[in-house]
Description:
This protein is of the alpha+beta class. The protein has 2 helices and 10 strands, in the order E-H-H-E-E-E-E-E-E-E-E-E. Helices cover 18% and strands 44% of the residues.
Amino acid sequence: xxxxxxxxxxxxxxxxxxxxxGKEEGLLRCxxxxxxxxxxxxxxxxxxxxxxxxxxxxxMRINGRLKKREYPLLLRNDTYRIYIEQSxxxxxxxxxxxxxxxxxxxxxxxxxxxxxxxxxAKVIRNGNEWFVHICVEKKxxxxxxxxxxxxxxxxxxIATTVNSSDPLTQVL
Length: 172
């Protein structure tokens, strides 16, 4: 009997930032808006150093073709921390000029477990609400499926399916 093979699975966990007090909200808004200004060429705005590096990396990836929209505030995995031992979880966000950043409560759409490794995160503003999307990785056992079902959404036919256990194509 062979030993199981493992792969790294990645997914994004979405969370809402809860109960920002006035000072925290102001600091987060300032960092977020300075990130937007930095992307648009204002290189002298005060911005956390790692966030500035991330902005430069983003500018190189998009090759200077900024769209007229807000971009998520990108956080490298070495600059933020999530405390999962508490309920709700606490997210530490780095802020320029604030030693230790700010700590804000977040509510996730699903649990973050101790066997997950947090990667980059994106802070998103939607009106007066704040959200964070956290990319996580987890080592999982690789499985070989017995059957595969493929569905092709069509224009002429609603859907065409193929099932690996029954090789005949079915049209709905």
